[in-house]
Amino acid sequence: MSTQEITAKVEHIKTLQAMIEELTAEMESVKDEVKAEMTAQGVEEMIVSCFKVRYKTVTTNRFDSTAFKKTHSDLYEQYIKQTTSKRFSIA
Hints:
Elements: H1 3-41, E1 45-48, E2 51-54, H2 65-71, H3 73-79
Antiparallel strand pairs: 1-2
């Protein structure tokens, strides 16, 4: 592949990335409007046409590895797992 072809592909990637960011922002804005309406109506679930829309509070439990590392650094070191991967980026 020539330098010109790679340049064209990178430019295409950047264009697509910009489109994704723009569409993501638009999608989040529309989601926020629906969530605001559901909040205003005081509902966590709505059936609209053939869609079931939910905006519910969800509680999760997560392991606090930072706090565990501070209080049990010896155990933390025993169970950490190092991984290797490749990262693709365009600057």
